[in-house]
Known about the structure:
The chain is of the alpha+beta class. It has five helices and four strands, in the order αβαββαααβ.
Amino acid sequence: MDAEVPHAERLGLAVLMTDLSAIILSGMYVAAADPNIPSGDWHHPLRKERMVFFELRQYRTRPGQREKWVKFMEEEIIPFQVARGMVIVGSFVGQEEEDLYVWIRRFENEEERKRQYDAVYESDHWKNVIAPQVPMMIDRDAIKVTRIEATPKSVIQ
């Protein structure tokens, strides 16, 4: 089907989509700068009622283990955690660092994080099946976990 659409028309559509994205984002930032400008139903820029936060988790894989680790994460760990209520925002590998693996989890509040940690890390499956395999693929001493929160206009909330 793409062959039937001239290149110029496809390019025009791409430019239009980019322009629309810029307009939407611009509107969000205008609303944050001047609340008197009508701009739709945006959240208040400095809201404090939500306590949503994220964990940015950075791991270092052992030499030659990155592909095996990614497969283990995507086929075992992430599905297991999601089944117990964890919200996994994304999973990434480093482009310039061959041993880097990063993933992000989202929590509504600290109480939810504690409940989900217990549901995952206190389970027999985690203790007996998953946890014993982890040290063979990643350097547990190099794990870095950073708690972060989204800025008011971040796409990820």
